[in-house]
Amino acid sequence: MNSIIVVGSGVAGMTAALDAVEAGLQVTVISKADLAESNTRYAQGGVAVVIDAMVDPGAPRLGDSVESHVTDTLTAGAGLSDPDTVQVLCAEGPGAIDELIARGVAFDRHDGQLSHGLEAAHSYQRILHAGGDATGAAIAYALIDRLHESSAKVLERTTVVDLVVEDGNCVGVRLLDGSKVGADAVVLATGGAGQLFPYSTNPEVATADGIAMGLRAGAVASDLEFYQFHPTSLSAPGNFLVSEAVRGEGAHLIDAEGRRFMLDLHPDAELAPRDVVARAIAQTMKSQNGAPVRLDATHLGAEFLATRFPNIDAACRAQGFDWGVEPVPVTPAAHYYMGGLRTDEWGRTSVRGLYAVGEVACNGLQGANRLASNSLLEGAVYGARVIEGLLDPAPAQPFGDDWIEPSVALDLADPVDGREVNRSDLQQLMWDAAGLARTEVDLQQAAAELATWRAGAVSDAKSAEDANLLIVARAVVASALARRESRGGHFRTDHPDTDPAQARHSAVHHSGVMARA
Ligand code: FAD
Ligand code: SIN
Predict the structure, then answer these.
(1) Averaged pLDDT for residues 498-512
(2) How many domains is the chain built from?
(3) Which among 23, 136, 380, 485 could disulfide-bond with 96, CB atoms 3.0 to 4.6 Å apart, if both were Cys?
(4) Distance (Å) from CA 188 to ligand 2 centroid
(5) 488 within domain boundaries
(6) DSSP states of 379-414
(7) Statement: residue 433 has pLDDT above 80
(8) Residue 118's pLDDT band (boundaries 50, 70, 90)?
(9) How far is Cα 480 from Cα 443, in angstroms, rounded to an integer?
């Protein structure tokens, strides 16, 4: 193993790239926009980690433990998180965050001690943050600085359109201009898929490219029915995220009458699991003719809000809201993809030479629902592990047979006489049929509609993205149809209960190729 390509420059990709350089590999990082443009860059609330286990001299002792972080993560995962991958995340997390600090990430401190906050479904105040509510930007810019200092070759504003697979091995990538870049292995770190929906906290680069490229190359994807909708984005164009940390600091959700509706619905009220709060908001909005609910943070005081959450403060003001004196309108928005390319705990996909890490991957860690602030940690921990894994001369086939079944075989061929896909139509269809609440009838109709659409010729980055969104939309709908129960981020109004017999991962593969190389 001499050379690798890393596709994507979020926390997962840059961690992998920096570790690979340190391991002596020739590294090429390819990213389709500016290096900083990623979900990572916009992360607000922070990073969950067992601070007690960090070596940083400013780490306070809170009585937290790896076992507690594991338990909270497994609970959020609603029966689908794999205990081994969760254990790795929580046990290796403290070292990974010490490494981020060593690489220049300046987490917020008070008198030298690391500041730490609370988010929903965490048993301890284990959320580190930076720049108040700019944790992702602090991580992104520090890692970009290190990347520029390293020997890695960086191709910015360069879109990867496909993987090159020869004799069952992934040996490189194909770029938009048709040229190929070769390497001994490819690490996909292409992030999420928020652009499947019209309302999303994600930036425009989150177009599910890695999942679609992986499926085309013959890799298995998993748990594609599980999408996390964040309860509180500003009800204004752009759906700017209003971090859960704001509710962690004590902000309340109120309906049109000013009533704290979450008090009646869950013992943890506003800090109930994300899917519970998001659906409660959607239900309340429906009962008040679509009017958004409001987040009341006024009792926290304008000065505190501006200091603790400077970016949200600025975003509110830019939309004409003064959240220090009035509650602000909020609405759920697509936020995080639990599903992705199936990997083992070393980031290995089912195609030799192809690795996936971060939000694009599904290593079983996030299960049916991700615990808040666990994904930056996932990128840092698994971004390092993927390099350890690819340097390890372990067997090429990482998987046993058990997790492949039941598997949805997806035909990726478009109808020749189909209607060319339009992104806005696709997003609205997905919101209506595969959003916060799903039914057999809506999903069947969506599947039928999607089957009549075709991708246009790939002539620019947008058309390549649209083709990818179409493939993944079909895969989401097929997976959501196949799971006749409700669990975590997948809610079926016609099957509202969780069925213990369905506590297993789903899998999707392209029917036109071998599911496993
Ligand atoms: P990303 O950071 O999304 O990076 C993906 C990269 O791949 C980008 O550089 C992109 O340009 C590139 N790319 C994609 N396709 C291609 C292609 N075809 N060719 C070339 N390059 C490509 N998580 C937390 O843990 N804590 C938080 O507080 C938090 N807050 C969040 C707030 C917001 C608004 C959002 C959107 C997410 C938040 N998350 C948070 C989730 C978290 O930010 C992401 O899950 C995580 O950063 C994903 O990292 P990644 O490296 O896997 O992908
Ligand atoms: C937030 O700040 O609410 C987002 C945290 C996350 O998605 O993990």
Answers:
(1) 90
(2) 1
(3) 380
(4) 23
(5) no
(6) HHHHHHHHHHHHHS---S----SGGG-SEEEE--PP
(7) yes
(8) confident
(9) 8
Instruction: Give the residue, by CA position, lying nearest to ligand 2 atom 8.
Output: 373
Q: Is the CB of 233 under 6 A from ligand 1?
A: no
Dihedral sign, Cα of residue 464, residue 466, residue 467, residue 468:
positive
Q: Give the number of other Cβ atoms within 10 Å of residue 411's Cβ.
A: 10
* Residue with CA closest to ligand 1 atom 28: 45
Which residue matches tokens 């400077």? 310
Instruction: Check whether 406 has a pLDDT greater than 60.
Output: no
For the CA of 48, the nearest atom of ligand 2: 8
Is residue 393, in this structure, part of any structural domain at all? no
Q: Render pLDDT for 79-114 as a digit per residue (tens, 0 to 9).
A: 999 999 999 999 999 999 999 999 999 999 999 999
CATH number at residue 266: 3.90.700.10
Q: How far apart are CA 90 and CA 352, in angstroms?
A: 28
Residue 166 lies in a domain: no
pLDDT band with cut points at 50, 70 and 90 for residue 516 = very low
Which sequence positions are flagged as catalytic? 274
φ and ψ at residue 290, rounded to 5 degrees: 85, -5
Does residue 21 surpass a pLDDT of 70?
A: yes
pTM to 2 decimal places:
0.96
- Who contacts 125 (Cβ-Cβ below 8 Å, separation ≥6)? 62, 116, 117, 118
pLDDT at 75: 95
Q: Which two tokens stand for residue 340?
A: 């992705």
Q: Is 244 near ligand 2, meaning CB less than 6 Å away?
A: yes
Whether the predicted pLDDT of 19 surpasses 70: yes
Mean per-residue pLDDT over the chain, rounded: 94
- The reply to whether 374 falls in a domain is no
Question: What is the extent of the structural domain holding 279?
Answer: 235-332
Which of 6, 19, 40 is the best mutation target for the ligand 1 pocket, counting ligand atoms within 8 Å of the beta carbon and taking the most? 40
Residue 396 is predicted with a pLDDT of 54
Ligand 1: which of 38, 159, 179 to mutate, judged by most atoms within 8 Å of the beta carbon? Answer: 38
Tell me whether residue 102 is exposed, middle or buried, using C-beta atoms within 10 angstroms of its C-beta: 0 to 12, 13 to 18, 19 or more.
exposed
